[in-house]
Amino acid sequence: MASFSLSGAFASLQYRDYRLLWSGSLLATTAFMMAFMLVPSVAFEITGSNTAAGLAQMGSGLGMFFVSPIGGVIADRLRKKPLVFVGQAVPGIVILATGLLIVSDMITIALLTIGTLIMGLGFAFMTPARQAWVGDLVPKESLPNAVALQQIAFNIAQVAAPLCIAILVGTWFGIGGTYLFMASLFVIVLPLTARLPNTPPAAKEARSIRSELVAGVGYVWGQPSLRTLWLGFVGLVICGFAFQTLLPGLLNELGRPTTDIGVIFLTLALAGLVVNLPLAAMIGTRWAWPALIGMGFTMALGLVLFSIAPTYGLLLAAGIPFGIGRSGFMLVDNALLMSNTNPAYYGRVMSLTMMGYGSQALLAPIWGILADTIGVRVTLAIVGIAAAVITTLIGLSWQRNRPAMRAATSTDDSTAKTADEPSTETLAGSTRSPAPMKANQEGPGIDTAAD
Question: From CA 267, how far away is CA 313, in angstroms rounded?
Fold first, then answer.
């Protein structure tokens, strides 16, 4: 296969295996995003209740929050390919079944919740493995860029998902037909995943799942940079995705149909995608941490603007800072986490970030109850203030540990350790060298020297 060279924000796509993973991730994430965007609307249409919209999302939270840490341990122990393949196939089957239930007018809140629970369990094993797999498919120096590109794929999916919803739901497809369209995407996704190499797991001594889970949490908690990035990610994801639960009720208050969620999500995603490319190039420089903090405050501003928007037009306008902030924060945070994590811990570290998605889904009923009790706008304002407080705490932690954290952003020496990272000899009781380049990867390594 002929090779080609890329530079800048898309540099990691020059590696064939990474291109396959990235393409499959893009399509699968588009389907997943469409499903989760539609779940609150389906629930709200059935019951007319914000609480029900939250309950329907809670199923995915149960799986992701309680099982994803175990999924991270498994991802560090086993080969990644089977975990990713099954983790994509199971949610695809659930999406197909949900579409058939909607088309046949047999869908209920209970069945919707069970479906999201099964999907959450699939994500708990698939997502840590997929993120950790990135470290096997690109050289060490390209890892920050590859992780950033994963977030860009996520944001492209955030554009494609609402665009598809806006086109399909409003036509003869309807919501049920749209679910069937989502399921059809896995006819492409699964063969792409099947073509990827079945890379071996890291060689390590056999230990109990509990021991490895404790070691992973201790590894993250023992380093100021990783601890701050993890806690900040969980907090901001909870705030950022609370909006998804509250949106149907807010649209109803403005006299708009719940099917308008497609246009809202499209606005958020386009705004986020615009900022992703410059942010991807910023990873590995001294501006990474200031950008992270700036994105957090931008998201908080968007939430507050949502709470006071008196018209649908101004609601769309408020989506611009919110979309920029939420997308930008997640990109920078994930890239910093992966680029400063020892390869032996990739799966466990990324599984801990999944707790953020699990937490937001578990809290969805709380947001729904608050919206039904004190009003959707007041609830949005509370969430926005919480996001600002969390971002302030991230900034204070960065200032207190600034020398170590700034050192952690440098990627000009792939073998260098961050100031607050223990030596590899202390990790899991053994040394661990970076994974070698795979024989079927294309293209040279990328120079990502900081500053």
Answer: 11
Distance CA 353, CA 341 (A): 13
Using CA atoms, how far apart are residues 216 and 352, in angstroms rounded to an integer?
A: 9
Q: What is the DSSP string of 328-365?
A: HHHHHHHHHHHHTS-GGGHHHHHHHHHHHHHHHHHHHH
Q: Helices 16-47 and 80-103 sit at what angle, rounded to 10 degrees?
A: 30
Phi, psi of 56 (to 5 degrees): -65, -30
> pLDDT of 33-61, one tens digit each?
888 878 877 887 777 777 777 777 777 77
Say how far apart CA 86 and CA 113 lie, in whole Å: 21
For the chain, report the end-to-end CA distance as a whole number of angstroms.
Answer: 34
Tokens of 247: 């949106």
The backbone torsions φ and ψ at residue 312, rounded to the nearest 5 degrees and listed phi first, read -65, -40
| Structural domains in the chain, sorted by start | 12-198+208-421 (1.20.1250.20)
18: nearest Cα among 8, 10, 7, 28: 10
Distance CA 315, CA 266 (A): 13
Secondary structure class of 69 (helix, strand, coil): helix
> What is the structure's pLDDT at 78?
81
Model pTM greater than 0.70? no
Close Cβ partners of 258 (under 8 Å, ≥ 6 residues apart): 41, 44, 45, 248, 251, 252
